[in-house]
Structures are given as C-alpha cells and as structure tokens.
Description:
By secondary structure, this protein is of the alpha+beta class.
Amino acid sequence: MAASSITKAKLDRNWEQKSDPLTKWVLRIAAVFVFIVTCSWLDTIKDRWYVFDPTSMHQLAQAAIATNPGNTRGMVDYIVANLTQTYPSSQIAINTDKSEWVFNNAGGAMGAMYIIHASITEYLIIFGTPLGTEGHTGLHTADDYFNILHGEQWAFAPGALEMERYTPGMVHYLPRGTAKQYKMHEGCFALEYARGWIPLMLPFGFADTLTSTLDIPTFYHTARITGREIIRNLLTGKI
Length: 239
C-alpha cells in the first residue's frame, strides 16, 4: 500500500509538472486574445473622445494665414487665442505657454515644435524649421493633418513619379498606416493635427533622440510637456 501511494504521488507530480507549462501558454494566449478584442472595440468608439475636427483646424489655419500674412509668430498667437476662446477649459486643456518650443528629431528630419494640445486620442502642435529639413513621416496609428502656415512642403509615396506639393493654406493628409518621404523647405511651419492613438506614436518621436542625437534635455522636456498635457486633459475627462 505504501509503495502504491508513493507511486501515485510521483505520477501526480509528473502530471502537474507537464501540465503547468501548457496552462501557462493557454493563459497567455487567452490574455493576448482579450487584449486584441479590447483594443479592437476601443478603436471602434474612439471617435466619441475627439474634440477637434480636421475641417475646423484647416479653417483655423487658413484664418491665421489671412489675418497674419507672412507672420508665423502672429499666426501662432492667433491660433492659440482662437482655441482658448472656442474651447472652454472644462472641456479640454490647451497649453498657452508659447515659449515651450522643443527640438523634434524623428524619421531623420529635424525641426522644432510647440505642443498646443496632447491627449490620448488627439494632439495639436506647431511644427517647423527656418532652415528646412527632410525625412520619413513614420507609420502611425493616427490620421495626420499637416496644415501649412508658411513655406512649402513636398512629399511622395512609393510608386509616385511626381511629387506632391503643399503651400500655405493647403493640408497634407496622411491616413494612419501609410508613410511617405517629405521635405520642408526653408521657413516652413505648419499646424499639425493628429487623431487616433497618440501614445503609440511616441516611440517614433523619441527613437532618433535615444539612438542618434542623445539630446537628453530635449527628451526630458518633450516627455515632461507631453505627459503633463495628457494628465491635464485626463483630469478634465478628455481621453
């Protein structure tokens, strides 16, 4: 009887050892499945969290150009003033500190940006450079609307034999999941509006800094401002 009990105990332990890895893999697969289903569901309802819209942002950019022709700083002042008047602070947080410009290196291109708004599902920035730059747009989880305020931008997608040309008042629309090469000429600045899953765009925005420029102060300030604005918006109920 004792020998039989010992043998049975050994068999039970062997079964537990063999089944334990299987159980872990089943749980992992189930967790991945639940994660994918949850993300797919959230993607279908993300529109309810948008406050801005592409048409309004395009009209705002055109109005800024008409009011301040050739004056980029005046355009920025006009845009921020209009946004603070149009959208109450109880609905959305707007960064009105126009001194918070930071370098941005991404996709091989370099410029500077002023983050006007950042939340989980939207961002609005002024981006540009007086020197000109060129690079890869990145492959993103958000739709991007690049409203040219001053200067000129060129772009092309693989297979295109003619360039796309965008001048002040025009908008360069980049659907999520697509990529292009682009070039911004001297003095080109734009109001850039993105809507979608913004946190998933951050690795592209930080990659060049962490692997090439090693500009840690810029990395710190970009992360600080972005994180601060996302939290400010979450506190108002803006996702």
